[in-house]
Write a structure and sequence with these properties.
This protein is an alpha/beta fold and 897 residues long. It has 35 helices and 29 strands. It has 6 domains: 94 residues; 105 residues, no CATH class; 92 residues, no CATH class; 136 residues, no CATH class; 277 residues, Alkaline Phosphatase, subunit A; 97 residues, Orthogonal Bundle (Arc Repressor Mutant, subunit A), CATH 1.10.10. Helix 12 crosses helix 14.
Amino acid sequence: MTLTAPTFSQIKAQVATIQQKTTRADVIGIHSRGRWSDETRIQDGDQTYLIYQCDSPLACRIAIREPVPDKTTKVLITGLEENDLGDDLRYRLAKQRLFPLQPWQIVCSLFNARNVDTRLTHHPWMAEALLALGPRHGYPPARGGFLDADTAWSLLLEHTIQLRGESPDLTSLLKWSLDQTATQHFRHQSEEFQAATIDWLCEKAGPVARLILQCLQEDKPKQHPLSVGIAMLVLYHEDARGRLEKATGKFEGLFFPQESPTPDQVQRWVLSAREVVRSLQHTDLHKHHVIVRRADDILKELAAAEYARLSDTSLLGYEQRLQQFGTTLTDILDRGAWQEVERLQELKAAIRSHDASFDQTRQLERLEMALRLVRWLQYDKPSAAALPQSFATAARYQLETGGFVDWARLQVRHGAEVEALSQAYQRLFETVTQIREQQSEHFGTLLAEWTASGSKGNDVLPVEQIIEQTIAPLAESQPVLLLVIDGMSVAVCRELLSDLTRNEWVALAEPNQRFNRPGIAAIPSATEFSRTSLLTGKLMQGGQHDEKKGFENHPRLSGKTPGRESPLLFHKAALQGPEQSQVRKEIASTRRVVGVVINAVDDNLLKGEQLDTRWSRDQIQLLTSLLHDARSAGRLVVLVSDHGHVLDCQTQNINTPDETAGGERWRPAGSAPVTGELLISGSRVQTTDQKLIAPWSERIRYSMKKNGYHGGLSPQEMVVPIVVLTNSDELPPDWSEQPIDTPVWWDELPPEHETLVPSPPVRTRKKKVEKAPLLFKELKEEVETPEASEAPEVPKWIQQLLESPVFADQKRLGGRRVPEDKEFSRLLQALDRRDGTMTLRALTRALDAAPLRMPGFLAKVERVLNIDGYDVIRYDETSDTVELQRELLLKQYDLDD
């Protein structure tokens, strides 16, 4: 079929085809009943075309006589037949003939094809379009000499509307819709092009493609198919059935006036739209927000916004989920309904599953901290009757439980962007803080009694004895790097340790202990007293000069062994600039003890009020390099603090009689203590008269407002964490790897058949334990010690597994250091009790293992249990869970259930 009027594209394509087949093609004759009415001279790149409309033989002869410059092709367009021209004219033409203008024939020539797909020839305009788009060096040859529809359409769509791919699906179509230039090109095409394109894409991507492209035919931002798809996720959600019919009807009237989408079409559209929008979170977050907020606007216009929470993509829905968590938390706090914590767990899981949570790490951490605090209130909150009866027990409670509570509550005090959640956090903070204040008062009373009675007993370690009892014995077997993190509370230490024990370091427990004893700061718990006492090994007040001299001349660290170098201590100034190299040199040396004082925490108390600090090795400047150097030198690392701190949480400044004396949280004993204060006296009180007044409450200060303070009698200030770290399998004599030490409520709810508090009744025996004398009287305390209970019976299927010849073969294939059978048994029993799924931390606790060892242990277990690549057991890093497929294990090993 010849078009009514020849186009330059047709002429150019025909010329190109002829010139490829003959070297003599300066003058080309084209037969066309349509007339050429455009310009005679056309410049296309470096090629010139002279096109003449010749209605008679004379006109042909005149045109032929015109001179032809270089790189110029002369084209004669005529409706005459070849016989009308005469032999002399035909001889002057390329191939001595007239070439008909048959677009599809020309297209075949361009593709070196013999046949064309009939699905193409139904569209006369398409040949012209392919001719117009013909690349300068031609199209690639058609496969097998057949120009199929897939090839032609992919080339046409790529060059006209930038839609790439031979077989576009819904996902690729929606990704293409993000290109505004491409969609504008689509809208500017002819109606026949748009209709044919829609039909073709429906054939390839399904009928949803028609609805998507119809959304794009009008340039309306709120009608973007991605936004429409995200809105449909809510409107057609199963949980909204029967509630949004009015909104859905209005929606279909606005966006699909001709034909409503079927349920299958809605599902396919929603799934593809969500996939594309999710990918934008990693490639173009701004565009992601624009698309999703447009979807939220659609819901608002349809009065369906309150159901946005049903969507895992809607930003409005994410805020609603946060708000729902906040209102639920407030309700639980109002009623004291701690047992309803599972409601919060479900809401937190819904928030975590939302797309918007992928970059909200800190927000998710606060949600988890809130859950932990509610679980603590439910399971582990001590009653007044259960408060510790000895100072050592109170100090250990701060080390093993109170520090975790403080870590969590100080995180939620930062609040949230959503008002309802922020208010709930504040309520939770106040509830927990009130309990912690009661505990602090009791701790302060026990501390005063312990101090007055001579500070006796081996269950706690006074700060001035840490070097003698911990550092010196360790240095006898391995070189030590002592890191004194000034002001590090137990809460900060717990957060820091959670990072370090995931990265190459294992915490050690001192001889005959599962966990290290708590250290106790000097009184007052201020740097000039407590740090000096720590580093010199004796109670005293001093500065950096006294600390350095006392440390390097400590009798347990220096001089007694011939040839041994004295210890060295570096303060803040030596950790900056060129002097830093000296510190690293000494760590790499043979010197047995190198000490470094780090002021990161103490500095944060002065100027970190508006900062949300996450305590990790990357947060503390130089800690990463110091740990690296210690690891390279084979040193043990001891993290210790001189005292802790309290943060400013609505503190009150109490004017003292003598404002020039005392410190931030202590004052001379010149007047009677007020509410929140205690009078404390004894040999560990480093004032002239060995007594002072200091607050047990974190609400009191005696100085200008800061981010935090120290010097008081609260457990947060007085209890000093002592952490010994190694990355070697060779441990110091009698030391052992410390098992995971987080409280059970920290990680997850216990299963239904396990309880934390109250404990199930156990057989106990009573024995008399003599306590150190208290301030006013001597007391005797009865301590109940549970008798050893029998180990639970190993399930039959686990026994069968351990006796299985297949299991024995798998262990032989498992490589070196395959776990023992009892370790497999404990692992499988722990997972089986939790229906096959546990968080890694919970499993680590159940196995009483060191956290750093667990990934390697699980890898060895997987190599043994996973036959032929089937995941009988697997660890998922994303969710931090270990999963056991029990049924698969039974089948793989041919075991009885």
